[in-house]
Design a protein that fits this description.
Helices cover 45% and strands 18% of the residues. With 214 residues, it is an alpha/beta fold. Keywords: Activator, Cytoplasm, DNA-binding, Phosphoprotein, Transcription, Transcription regulation, Two-component regulatory system.
């Protein structure tokens, strides 16, 4: 997936909505104007068709979880409600995850980064193997915890590599970053011995660098 992920924040507190929009305003994401009610959210969904909604459970004119259930969109519920029944109801409605307010900015930022990696794996219309599906779900739910010494972009690039290797252009396409960004991070990872670099010689021209995850 190379297109920017369009995010709609649905929260009736404009200060909270602004905070969440600020966190979501990161590379690979486009943040839409926030919606403060169910009605405004439905209008924004109709007009702008976001890829992901970040929605409060309780809104002035209805239930955010019912909104999640009624729209064919990825959703994450952000709510002060911490009772198990509400969390179960949100997950049954189709929410990909649930964060209890108040939470640290990093918690939402990390979740959005994991969502981008998950979407990169499942975003096509092709068939998914079980191993690929398990990997995507593990990433989304934090089963593959990123190293504290690595950036989110490095983690994304590492996920784009496999045992057969890939060129910088292929890594850029798979991870949704520019070729220059991919090349820079690949070189840094190779210099630290985290990945291997091999040359593939064609019939003509310069050899191609292939990057392999160890």
């Amino acid at each position: 997936m190379t297109d920017s992920i369009r995010v709609l924040v649905v929260d009736d507190d404009f200060r909270v909505a602004g905070l969440h929009r600020g966190i979501a305003d990161r590379p690979g994401f486009t943040v839409l104007d926030s919606a403060g009610s169910i009605a405004a959210a439905r209008a924004a969904i109709r007009d702008h068709r976001p890829d992901l909604i970040l929605v409060d459970a309780y809104l002035p004119d209805g239930d955010g979880i019912d909104l999640v259930r009624s729209v064919d969109l990825d959703a994450i519920v952000l709510s002060a409600a911490n009772d198990a029944a509400t969390v179960r109801r949100a997950l049954r409605a189709g929410a990909l995850s649930y964060l209890v307010k108040p939470f640290e900015s990093r918690a939402l930022g990390d979740l959005l980064d994991r969502y981008a990696r998950y979407r990169n794996l499942v975003g096509s219309d092709g068939a998914l193997g079980q191993e690929e599906l398990d990997r995507a779900l593990s990433i989304l739910h934090g089963g593959e915890a990123p190293s504290l010494s690595r950036s989110a972009t490095e983690q994304l690039i590492l996920e784009a590599l496999d045992a057969e290797g890939a060129s910088a252009s292929e890594v850029a396409e798979r991870s949704g970053v520019s070729r220059a960004t991919a090349q820079r991070h690949l070189a840094a990872l190779a210099s630290r011995g985290i990945i291997d670099v091999r040359l593939r010689y064609g019939s003509t021209g310069r050899p191609e660098h292939r990057y392999l995850r160890r």
